[in-house]
Amino acid sequence: MSHDPLADPEPLIRRVYSYVAYRIGDGPDAEDVTSTTIERALRYRSSFDPRKGRPQSWLIGIARSCVDDFLRGRPLPAGDVGEPAASDELESEALLRLSVGAAVAALGDLDRELIALRYGADLSTRQIGELLAMKSGAVDVALHRARERLRSELAGLGVGGVSSAAMTVRGAAAEPS
User: Rounded to two decimals, what is the model's pTM?
Assistant: First the structure.
């Protein structure tokens, strides 16, 4: 093996966790899926080819598969559990997170994946293109359209002016089953 993709694991694990939490929400499930991702990466690290991309893109590709496996095996939610009352600031942040999550959930599969890769995993358009076998320009256009559809969904929920920074809140766009 000429290049160990896991030579510096700490930032890679943080990035994988951020991506996973963006797709399924923060917490124990995200930790389990991240662990499964790292386990698979360790098992298959000899298959990493640095000519095909960077370690983070390779690892996020594994994480995508692990998230899909998790979502297929997850039972349907029985209903929303009420949250205890919170301060105004905490309440407004929670409402924003829920609104962004609902808006992202209403998007199509590709739009959700693009948003998660860009804002959850913090990948560049080039890296997303490598993962999805798309050209960088096509990723830019698709991301622009996904953001426009997201803004439209948010406007429909009565939420306006959500910046890209708000989309980076970890777990803000937890994907439904």
Answer: 0.63
Question: Closest Cα partner for 167 from 136, 122, 107, 130?
Answer: 122
Dihedral, 69, 57, 52, 138 alpha carbons, nearest 10: 90
For residues 22 and 173, is the Cβ–Cβ distance under 8 A?
yes
What is the 8-class DSSP label of residue 118?
A: I
C-alpha torsion angle, residues 74, 62, 6, 48 (rounded to 10): 160
Per-residue tens of pLDDT for the chain, all 177 residues = 457 888 888 989 999 999 998 888 889 999 999 999 999 999 998 888 888 888 888 899 999 999 999 988 876 555 554 555 455 677 777 777 778 888 888 899 899 989 989 988 888 899 999 889 999 999 999 999 999 999 898 888 887 666 554 554 434 443 333
Q: How many Cβ atoms are within 10 Å of 97's Cβ, its own excluded?
A: 18
What is the Cα 88 distance to its own chain's centre?
A: 28
